[in-house]
Amino acid sequence: MKFKNFYKIFNIIIFIIIFLSLSTFLFAEEPKVLTIPISSLKGPITIEANRLTYNRDKGLYTASGKVMIKFNEYKITANFIQYNIKNFELIARGNVLIIHKGDKLYSDSVHLNTKNKTGEIINGKIFLSRGSFHITGGKIKKVGEKRYIIYDGTLTSCDGKRPDWRFTGKRLNVEIEGFAVVSGVTFQIKNYPLIYVPWGIFPVITERQSGFLVPKLGYSSKYGPKISIPFFWAITDQFDSTFYLDYLGKRGIRGRSDFRWAWLRNSYGRLSLFYIDDHDYNDNRWAIFGKFAHYLNNNLYIKGDIDLVSDNEYPKDFGEDIKYRSQRYLRSQIFLGKRWSNAHLLARMVYFDDLIKTSNDETVQILPEIIGYISPIKLYQGIPLYFGGDLDFIHYWQEEGKKVDRFYFAPTLFLPYRFMDRFEFLSYISLLETFYIDENDGSGSTKSREVLDTGMKISTTLMKVYPVSFLSIKAVKHTIEPEIGYRYTSRSSYKELPLLDESDIIPHRNWITYGIKSRLIGKFATISGSRFLELLRLRIYQNYSLGDPIDSINLIPDSGKRLSNVRGELTVHLSPYLSYRFDTSLNCFEKMIQSSNHILTITDKRGDYFLTEVRYTDDLVEEINAGAFLKFTNNIDIFGSTKYSYLDDIFIESTIGVNFKFNCWGIRVILADRRRPSETEILFIITLKGIGDIKGEF
To answer: Are 577 and 569 in contact (CB under 8 A)?
Structure first.
């Protein structure tokens, strides 16, 4: 509730004194207009009244008969205004109206003390344009510079004599830019009482400020009754926090806090802390989640993600807190990066938390890793020969087990060339060098591996432009881009080398890769000229091994023959509002699809959308995901999503909701059903314009 406008409006009355003290008479019955320039103030004061008098003995100034006072952006009208310069008492009566920048105060009478800034307003009606608040009070007492007591008051952000909603209270104790403490408060719909609360506190502020927010009430099958009391702390303009005190029924009381900061455009962060003495778990439990990025300059930055929990069961018990509740590992990392014109260096530390194992002592951690990359640099001006490469140093660490250093670097020479003004040729040769230092036995024994990796590719582009006249498409360019390449990776042995992660497996390759890309690019006519949109992109390719059979790598299925699976990728944009993406892997020998993914997205100018995703990987993933949002009417939105697993024959998670929107309020109802972990939730969110959200969860 932004009551500081009261104070600004009341202060203008003081300027009446300046005018009245300069006037000793002016008592004609005809309307008089007087403008007084005052050099110490911004602009003059203009007063219009039928009669102006002054009693020198009593120090009393009186203006009556359609009184109007103007000063800067203030306008005050009344039938009668009287001011006593001895006791600083001001009285205004009869159709009192004070206007300032769209804010309005109506009253039958106003009685103020301009010295100590106290007073009383009878039958007051207030409209605050910012937030569109309407406030009424049978009696409004100004008991301090920033404090008001409103008797028999109402509050709403709805227009009209019968507002859609309003709060009524016998007594409202209000702090400017703070909160209203209400006794005997009733929440009404169309002037009909709906909820009665003997006592309450809620914010009605329109600016960022510290204080309590609207509490959240609900019920959960996991917890029982739920009550959440949030407190917002506006620490600085760039840093704030919200503290929550949550009552979770049989679980107990949980404390949590969210810290947020944004110093520069690319420097931001959020840190969430949770702590509970869980009565059902019989132990103290906690969680820390955060993400941040800070740029020291354009080329030097530090970033991080933090995901830590006290125990493996936390994601199941408090799934609403964690974004990775269906994954096995939680990963926390912090990294420092430095960029140059042709190089990039990154240092990071990664901690994995295995949510399946009872102990995390055997989980391999990365403490630290240093990654470097050099983009291709031309060696000689007359020869298209470039040098580049990358390096990677990792210290693998376990509480109990491996402590190994791995150093990998791959210097690479590139030779791109264009000939016959049609063909693109690219070749490279790289030496993959890996060193291992075993720290477990204390001797620091060293092992190494050298792998030669080389390859080349030739491609060309055939294209033709077709004039068309379909809708707003004026022309279509069709390109066909065949390519053929060769890659050779020498053999290496793993029998005596540590297998720390998938990067330690460098498969032997003696492959020919061939494929084709095709694109359709449309030219659309617009008011300002034309624009281009890639309507279709298709790529099909396959590998043929001159040596060993091509086996599956990194869980990506393959044929196990000399001919690899045929892989295809298709992207279609029929318009800015319709897109389809498809990729697949086809085993020609067994005549079966080993993996495929489909994503269809439909949108429109209103903001409606429909998205569906079908994912399949042989014996690993079979699921369908879908989501939709529909503006059913101007006041009603319908939305929902679902995730179904064919392998498990269950709906992993489904939600459906409806959002009712009106001028000064709205209500959102969401039904969510989850199976990992098992949970059913009904969420009610009532939004009152200017007040905020009132949430209930069951």
So the answer is: no
In three-state form (DSSP H/G/I as H, E/B as E, the rest C), the secondary structure along 35-63 is EECCCCCCCCEEEEECEEEEECCCCEEEE
d(CA 259, CA 497): 45
* Spatial distance between the Cα atoms of 503 and 312, rounded to a whole number of angstroms: 28
pLDDT range class, residue 7, cuts 50, 70, 90: very low
Q: Considering only the C-alpha atoms of the chain, give the largest distance between any 2 of them, rounded to a whole number of Å.
A: 117
Residue in the structure block whose two tokens are 């307003």 = 121
| Main-chain phi, psi angles of 547, to 5 degrees | -125, -110
Rounded CA-CA distance 585/553 in Å is 13
Tallying the residues shown for the chain, one arrives at 698
The DSSP H or E segment spanning 151 is: strand 147-156
Question: Encoding tokens for residue 442?
Answer: 């204390």
3-state secondary structure of 692: strand
Residue 432: φ, ψ to 5°: -95, 105
Helix (H) or strand (E) holding 18: helix 4-22
Token pair, residue 262, equals 């944004």
- Cα–Cα distance list, 358 to 211, 353, 495, 565, 678 (Å): 42, 10, 30, 40, 22
For 203, 230, 484, the CA distances from 177, given in Å and listed in that order, are 9, 18, 70
E strand map for 355-402: 365-378, 386-397
Q: CA 538, CA 580: separation in Å to the nearest integer?
A: 12
Phi, psi of 686, rounded to the nearest 5 degrees: -100, 125
Give the three-class secondary structure for 77. Answer: strand
**Residue 171, number of CB atoms within 10 A of its CB:** 15
Reference 289, options 241, 333, 322, 261; nearest CA is 322
CB 326 within 8 A of CB 362: no
pLDDT band at residue 316, thresholds of 50, 70 and 90? confident
Angle subtended at Cα 111 by Cα 109 and Cα 117, rounded to the nearest 5 degrees: 140
Burial class (CB in 10 A: 0-12, 13-18, 19+), 656: middle
Q: What is the pLDDT of residues 245-297, one digit of tens each?
A: 988 888 899 999 999 998 777 789 999 999 999 988 888 999 999 999 999 88
User: For residue 531, what are its two tokens?
Assistant: 């624009």
Cis (ω within 30 of 0) for the bond into 677?
Answer: yes
- Cβ 365 vs Cβ 383: under 8 Å: no
Strands 89-100 and 636-645: unpaired
* Whole-number Å distance between alpha carbons of 21 and 677: 77
| CB of 262 closer than 8 Å to CB of 294 | no
How far is 440 from 265, CA to CA, in rounded Å? 46
CB atoms within 10 A of CB 497: 16
What amino acid occupies position 125?
K
**Residue-wise burial string across 291-329, b where 16 or more C-beta atoms lie within 10 A, e elsewhere:** ebebbeeeeebebbbbbebbbbebbbbbbebbeebeeee
As a whole number of Å, the end-to-end CA separation of the chain is 30
> Coil, strand, or helix at residue 137?
strand
Q: What's the rounded Cα separation, in Å, for the pair 271 and 308?
A: 12
Q: Can you read off the two tokens belonging to residue 637?
A: 């939105």
Q: Which amino acid is at 26?
A: L
Nearest residue to 571 (alpha-carbon basis) of 562, 580, 561: 580
Element counts in the chain: helices (H) and strands (E): 2, 42
Fill in the DSSP letter of residue 188: E
Say which range, 149-158, 489-498, 521-530, 551-560, has the weakest mean pLDDT: 551-560
Give residue 17's identity as a one-letter amino acid code.
I
Q: Give residue 585's pLDDT.
A: 93
Strand partners, 365: 397
CB 79 within 8 A of CB 68: no
Paired sense of beta strands 60-71 and 665-675, if any: unpaired
List the structure tokens of 61. 């100034």
In degrees and rounded to multiples of 5, residue 321 shows phi and psi of -85, -20
